[in-house]
Amino acid sequence: MQSSEPTAPSLAAVRPPTVLLRALLDVTEEFERALGSELTVNPTDLHAMEHLIMSGPLSPSELSRRLGVTSAATTTVVDRLTALGHVRREPHPSDRRGIRVVASEASTARAMGRIMPMIAGVDSVLDDFDDAEQAAITRYLQRVVEQYRDHAEPRDGVAQGRATQDPVAAPGPGAAPTERAEPDRDTAWGSRGVVP
């Protein structure tokens, strides 16, 4: 009697670079957890800080779009980051009714003090490869990014922009989850400021 349940694809044929890519993604998550712990923020708040540090001041609506969360969830994120001294709200310079969220200089310096040595270390690894090898590495990584983008698209029958539950946006264990909207496809992968 045969089982009608689908079987998982075999990973035995996966080549070493693909295995190492998975390890890179795992260690990137570990790095982000460590950075979030040092800054006493959860992953959603860290992601918000990354956007503010890398892009500069943003309106709450733009931050909400980039995070893929509702405006109410963004308000909660900004409130938490403000209470910790990581960000501040300030009037928009050209829109009297608008406000911008700005990363504090001290928090930016703390985050970049941890991020930049890691980026410099990763970049220095390329010194061990000649121009042709670097070109091959670049082509490989470009194609990997394309694969991720292709597979990040919603599958047929899955609505875009739907609200889901985001347990990481909640302030701590056991707290109520926060509503989250699907992220914009243009910012879901490439916007992360921590990964070089």
Automatic annotation (TrEMBL):
Q: Which Gene3D superfamilies match?
A: Winged helix-like DNA-binding domain superfamily/Winged helix DNA-binding domain
Single GO MF annotation: DNA-binding transcription factor activity
A biological process term (GO) from this entry: response to stress
The HTH marR-type domain extends over 17-146
Pfam families attached here?
MarR_2 (PF12802)
Region Disordered, as annotated, extends over: 152-196
Q: Compositional bias (Low complexity) spans?
A: 167-178
Q: Which PANTHER family match?
A: HTH-TYPE TRANSCRIPTIONAL REPRESSOR YETL, TRANSCRIPTIONAL REGULATOR, MARR FAMILY
Give the protein name, as stated in the record: MarR family transcriptional regulator
What's the source species for this entry?
Answer: Microcella pacifica
